[in-house]
Amino acid sequence: MVKGVDDVLVRLSRCCNPVPGDDILGFVTRGRGVSVHRADCPNAIELKKEPERIIDVSWEGTPSASSYQVEVYIEGIDRTNLLLDVTRVFSETGTNVLSCTTNTHRDGMVEMTLSVPGLRPGGDRPPHQEPRGSRRGFRRASHGAGQTLRKR
Predict the structure, then answer these.
(1) Are 2 and 27 in contact (CB under 8 A)?
(2) Which has the closest alpha carbon to 91: 134, 120, 67, 123?
(3) Contact 55/49 with Cβ under 8 angstroms?
(4) What are the beta bridge partners of residue 138?
(5) Nearest 5°: phi and psi at 81?
(6) Per-residue pLDDT of the chain (152 residues; tens, 9 = 90+)
(7) Which of 20, 46, 109, 111 can pair with 63 through a Cys bridge, CB separation 3.0 to 4.6 Å?
(8) What secondary structure letter does DSSP report for 126?
(9) What would you report as the CA-atom Rg of the chain, rounded to the nearest whole angstrom?
(10) pLDDT for res 16
């Protein structure tokens, strides 16, 4: 994964959850090896201010459906059958939902985070189709601050 170095600790950053296929960069940490970020991660943009600590990294091998998971974040207005409609979108594309967490707020908004395989055989990404009605946002989840994308 790290070009020109064989024996180094490498970890994927939780702020942006890089997955195979993402453009990535490595950052040499102090005492924790190399931290891998998506190239468009807000934290990576800040880290680039220390160019001497940036290192070339790349994905090894060909990812398989079982090699990683992607979290999909959905925000919308709560209604009857919303979860059914969301899971139907994944089901219709043959994507297995590995886990799902939903939180409904007092203001009637709902947040869902679903974990799905990163790739299906043939290299297709999880569905980009969005459930109809009462939706506000649909994106791959990131844990970093300022990452929420909303469609209105």
Answers:
(1) no
(2) 120
(3) no
(4) 74
(5) 70, 10
(6) 666 566 788 888 888 888 877 889 999 998 888 999 988 888 887 888 999 999 988 887 665 545 677 788 889 999 999 999 998 988 888 888 999 999 999 999 999 988 888 754 344 444 444 445 444 445 555 544 333 323 22
(7) 20
(8) S
(9) 18
(10) 85
Three-state helix/strand/coil letters over 36-79:
EEECCCHHHHHHCCCHHHEECECCCCCCCCCCCEEEEEEEEECC
Compute the C-alpha angle 80/75/92, nearest 5°: 65
Residue 137: count of CB within 10 angstroms of its CB = 15
Query: Which tokens sit at 109?
Result: 């908004």
Structure tokens at 124: 């297709």
Token pair for 147: 């990452």
Pairing assessment for the beta strands 10-12 and 34-38 based on DSSP bridges: parallel
Alpha-carbon distance of 130 to 118, in angstroms, equals 17
Q: Tokens 């943009």 sit at which residue?
A: 45
Q: Which two tokens stand for residue 136?
A: 């506000």
Beta bridge partners of 24: 38
